């Protein structure tokens, strides 16, 4: 690997933006890394090394936003509820909290009221994440923003799990005021 490219990746904790590349040889090296599978294009202008350890990155994001809770796509991927692979981390914080995120790694912030923010937080692998049932409720709650197809995939994968807890799911759905919608989605799948 070209030393310049490696320096850029390591300086940005495993990420690279196209604006960081100034030489034609750097572009050539990046394309070789992509072709060999060592790097991957996350979105237009953003690349990541494949070897970059996801658990370490999760811890890093958790340190940057200590009160942040992994939610939505990040939580669904953690629980293997979706095949969708997010290119950015999804973090929930309390609505009025001020937080400044660095450019790398890419993080999408959601500002929720304290009532919805505190519901279902668990700590695992040195990070805070919403538990399985709260994550499913969030998929249904934000179905119009994330897409109905993703919400249905999350619910379907939840129903197929052995460790599901319908009582806890119903409790959260009641608190989030989506009980009827959850019932309507789950009943045909049983």
Structure overview:
With 190 residues, the chain is α+β, with helices and mostly antiparallel strands. It has two domains: 3-49, no CATH class; 55-189, no CATH class. The protein contains ten helices and eight strands. It has a three-stranded antiparallel β-sheet. Strands 4-5-6 form a three-stranded mixed β-sheet. It starts with a helix and ends with a helix. The model has no long low-confidence stretch (mean pLDDT 87).
Q: What is the number of strand segments?
A: 8
Classify the secondary structure makeup into a structural class: alpha+beta
Helix content: 40-55%
Following the backbone from N to C, one meets helices and strands in this order, namely HEHEEHEHEEHEEHHHHH
Number of helices: 10
Query: For the terminal residues, how far apart are their CA atoms?
Result: 51 Å
- Largest beta-sheet details: 3 strands, antiparallel
Please give the order of strands in the largest beta sheet. Answer: 1-3-2
Unreliable spans are: none
Strand content: 15-25%
Give the tally of structural domains: 2
Give the overall shape, derived from the CA principal axes.
elongated
Question: How much is the average pLDDT?
Answer: 87
Rg, nearest Å: 19 Å
């Amino acid at each position: 690997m070209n030393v310049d490219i490696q320096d850029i990746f390591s300086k940005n904790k495993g990420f690279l933006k196209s604006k960081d590349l100034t030489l034609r040889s750097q572009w050539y090296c990046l394309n070789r890394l992509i072709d060999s599978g060592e790097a991957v294009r996350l979105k237009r202008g953003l690349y990541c090394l494949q070897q970059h350890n996801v658990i370490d990155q999760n811890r890093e994001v958790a340190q940057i936003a200590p009160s942040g809770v992994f939610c939505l796509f990040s939580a669904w991927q953690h629980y293997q509820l979706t095949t969708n692979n997010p290119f950015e981390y999804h973090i929930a914080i309390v609505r009025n909290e001020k937080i400044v995120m660095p450019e790398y790694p890419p993080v999408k912030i959601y500002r929720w009221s304290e009532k919805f923010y505190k519901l279902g937080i668990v700590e695992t692998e040195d990070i805070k994440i919403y538990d399985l049932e709260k994550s499913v409720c969030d998929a249904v709650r934000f179905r119009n923003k994330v897409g109905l197809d993703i919400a249905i995939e999350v619910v379907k994968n939840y129903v197929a799990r052995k460790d599901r807890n319908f009582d806890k799911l119903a409790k959260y759905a009641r608190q989030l005021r989506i009980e009827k919608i959850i019932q309507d989605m789950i009943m045909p799948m049983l």
